[in-house]
Queue: 3 jobs
Job 1
Amino acid sequence: MSPDAPGNAAAPGPTRSSGQPFRLGILLSGRGSNFLAIDRSIREGRLTGVEIAVVVSNVADAPGLAAARDLGLNHALFVSRGRPRAEHDADVLAGLRTHRVDLVCLAGYMRLLSPDFIAAFRNRILNIHPSLLPAFPGLDAQTQAFEYGVKIAGCTVHFVDEHLDHGVIVLQRALPVLETDDAHSLAGRILAEEHMAYSEAIAGVASGEYEIVGRRYIKKSAR
C-alpha cells in the first residue's frame, strides 16, 4: 500500500523488540554532523533505547566515516563512484541486514536511493532536509529560502519514498529569518535545529507510537 494514498494507513514502520535496543544504520557521504549529533544524544542519555548499529559511507575519505571509526562504532565503506546504482545499493542493503538495522537514517548521504532499496526498508528510512518541505526541495535549500525572501525557515525530518524530498513528514522545526542573516548564517542556524530535530524524530519512530494516514504522521496519543 502506498504511503501517499489519501485516507489510507501506510504499511507499518519499524517496531522495537521487547528489551532490545532499536538499531540505527547511518548513511553519510561527508562530515556527518547530524550523525554526530545523534551519537551525542545517545551517549548523553537524551535518546534512550537506541543504538547505532553501523555507519556506512559511499565516500572513502568522508570525515563522518573517520569519526565513526574513532568512536569505536561499526562502520563500512561501499564506494559508489563508477558503479551502477542498483548494484551499489544491493551491497549497502546486505551490510545493513548483516548489522540487523531497524531504521536507516540518511545524514548527508549524497545519493538517490534505488526503488529496490526503498522497498526493502519501506517506512524505515528517515532523511533530514534543511527547509520546511514541501518548500525548497533539492540542493542548497537554505540559499533557495534566503534568496526567495522567506520570513520563516527551518528543517524537516521525513520518511524517504521514491521521490526527492517527498515522503511523509515526521517532524519540522521552524525559526525566523533575521534581518541580519545571510545565506551562510541562516544555514548555520538551521543546522542547529537539525541536530535537535533528528534525535526527536528518531525517538518518535522508535517508540512505534504513531500511525501514518495518507500523508500524515500521527502520534497515537494524539488520537
Job 2
Amino acid sequence: MFAFEKLPGLPRDRIVEAIAPVLRAHGLAGVELVWRTDGQGRVLQVTLESAALDGAEGAEPGAGVTLDVCSKVSRDLSTALDVLELIDGKYRLEVGSPGLERNLYTLADYRRFSGRLAKLKLASAVEGQYVLLGKLNGVDEAERVLITVDGVEHAVRLDDVRSGQLAIDWQEMGFSPSPRQKAGRRPAAQGRK
C-alpha cells in the first residue's frame, strides 16, 4: 500500500487496515507512512498522491493532492485511528503530498518518472561517483535503474541505490543561476569599519 513504511513499535497491519479505506474513499494512494519523534513529540506522517496517478506514466508528483484534500484526509484518518485506539498517548498526524523533489523507492517510481531529473545516492561508486545527478531513462530488462549523467547512461541496480529523489531543473523552468552562483562561492562578509 505504501512505497515506504517505518512504524517502529506500532501495530503496522492494523494501522494500514485503518488507513486503506480512508485513502480509497478519497481516491488516493499511499507513498510514505512514517512514525517518528521530533522536538514537539510523536508524529505519524502520511504522504499521499492521487490513486489515478499511482503507476501512471509521466504523472506529476502529488498532483491532485491539495491542502483541502490533505485537511479532509487528516480529519478522517484521525477519526479512524482514534476510534480503533491504535496509538497510545498524544501524537500529531501530518498528511501531505510527496512534493516536487519526491523520494523514489520502487522500480515503478523510476519507470514512471522517466525523463525527469533525479539525484541518486549510491552504496557503491559508479565511475568514482557516489552521487549521480541526471535524467532518468526508466528501467532496463535486467531491472536496473537507467540514468544519464553528462551524456553517459549508467545502469544501477535498485539494491545499490541508498536513496533516490526527483530534482528540480531550474534552468528548464526558465531560471538561470547568477554568475556568482555559477562560481559556487559567495564573497566573505565584510565587517564594519
Job 3
Amino acid sequence: MILVSGGTGMVGSAIVAELLRRGEPVAVLGRDTAKVRQAFAGTVEAREADVTKPATLTSAFEGIDTVVNAVQFPTSPIEVPRRGWTFEEVDYRGTVNQVEAARAAGVKRFVYVSGIGAAPDAAKHWFRFKWQAEEHLRQSGLEWVIVRPTWVYGPRDVSLNRLLNFSNFLPFVPMFGDGNQAMQPVFVDDVGRVVATAATKPEAANQLFELGGPEVMSMNDVLKAGLEAKGRKRPILHQPMFVGKAIGTVMSMLPITPPLTADAVDFIAEPAMADTRNLQAVLAPELMTLREGLRTYLKP
C-alpha cells in the first residue's frame, strides 16, 4: 500500500492518478476524508490526519509500505502564519512528523517531493526549510527518495495560469522583474509519472532526483508560450520588483488571506533550473515540452 499525503493537491493528485493507472493500491492522507473520497470517487482509501499534529499520524500510517509526501499548504507560496501555513510548519515540521510516524509504523520507503533550490545555506528561508526536511529524512534510517521539481505547471497551477488570465480582461500581462530568469518548467503529469516511478522502482532507493522539463527558457518565453496556447497576443508589462514587494507587504497586513506577499514576489521571480543527469540515468523519463503540456489544457 502506497500512501500519498497531500494527495488532493495539484501535484499530489497527479501522483495518485499515475499510481492508480499502474494498478497500485493507494491510500490518500488528508484533513478531510470526505474531500478525499469525492476527489477520487472511492478509488483510494481515505485516511484522515494533519501532518502538523503528530498524534493524528499514528493510525494513518498503519499497514503502509511506502509514503509519498506531496503536502503543500493551501496558499503556497503565500505564507499565512496565523493559520500555521508556513514553510517551517508544513514543509519542514510536517515532513519531520511524517518521517517519525513512518519509522514507528515500519514503513519501508519514504518519498519526499521537495523543490529545486533546497540547500542549507540558501538565501531564501523556504529553500532552507526544504533542505532541513530532506536532511531529516536522509538521516532517518528509512529507505528514502527525494524529488526536487522546478516550476510545476498544469490545469490547477495558480502561478502561470493567474498571470495568463490577466489577458482575459487586460490589454497586457503584468510581471514583476525583467522576466529574464532562467526557467525549466515541468508539466504536472510528468511530475506524477516521475514520483510514481520513484516510489516503486528499486533502483531509486536513497537517490536524489532533480526534475525539470526538457527546455530551458526565460520567464518571458514561458508567458509568450502560454499566450500563444490561449490564442492571445498581449505585450508583457514589466514592473520593478520593489513595486511588487511593496504591494505584497501592504497586502500581508490585511486581516484576510493575502493574495500576494513580498516573499511570494521573490518566490515567483526565482530562477528554476535542474540538473537532470541522475534522473535520466536512473529513471529515464520522457518529458513534455512546455507547448506540448500547455496544449493539453489551454485552448484558443
